[in-house]
Amino acid sequence: MAKITIDKEKCKGCQLCITACPECLIDPSGPFNSFGLKAVKFKGAKKCKGCMLCAIVCPDCAIEVFK
Ligand code: SF4
Ligand code: SF4
User: Cα(first)–Cα(last) distance of the chain, in Å?
Assistant: First the structure.
């Protein structure tokens, strides 16, 4: 089972990763960061395949994938 971490200070809430995840594991209701931008959050590792699609599409390199 894989998992991801999302660096909320790098995330600008563009939601590209939400669209990219084939398992719908990323949610828009994350915390606000220090720039006042609403980050996304990871919903859980149960179905994460470690496919890295979320990390690849992120323009701000905010996502790390652990397999
Ligand atoms: S690694 Fe793949 S399955 Fe896991 S959260 Fe990212 S896009 Fe979704
Ligand atoms: S693609 Fe990156 S910057 Fe955009 S919402 Fe996802 S983690 Fe945040």
Answer: 7
At 20, the amino acid letter reads A
User: By alpha-carbon position, which residue is closest to atom 3 of ligand 1?
Assistant: 48
Domains and CATH numbers, the chain: 1-67 (3.30.70.20)
List C-alpha distances in Å: 46 to 4, 22, 23, 49, 60.
11, 13, 10, 9, 25
- Any ligand 2 atom below 6 A from CB of 41: no
pLDDT tens per residue across span 8-39: 999 999 999 999 999 999 999 999 999 999 99
